[in-house]
Amino acid sequence: MGDTRAKGRHGEELAAAYLIKHGFRIIEKNYRNHFGEIDIIAEEAGTVVFIEVKLRNLISYGHPVTAVDKWKQMRLSRIAAGYITEKRLTERPCRFDVVSIYKGNIELIKDAFEMPEGLSW
Asked: Which of 22, 40, 44, 99 makes the best surface tag, with the fewest CB within 10 Å?
C-alpha cells in the first residue's frame, strides 16, 4: 500500500507542476473532509477547480480517466460541495477536471464531469 500511495503522491506532484505551468494557482492539495479527499483544488481564471489525478503504468487497468466512474464522481461532488460551503465560495464558478498520467504523458481533461443531479454547490 505504501508503494501505491507513494506513486499517487508522485502523480499529484507531476500534476500540480503541470497545472502551475498552464496558469492554475494551487489552493490546496489532498483536501479532506468527512466524505473523503480531493487530490488538488486550484483556481483558473476565477473558477475553483476540483482536480482528480489518475496515474497508470499499465493500460490493462483501463485508461486513467475511466477510474473516475459515476460512484467516484458522486463522492468527489460531495467533498467539493462541503469545501464550497466551508470556505463560503457559493458565488464562485466551479468545475471538475481530471489529470490523467499514463507513461509520462500528462493530459488535462477540463469539465470532465458535472455535479450529479440532486447535489448542488
From this structure: 22
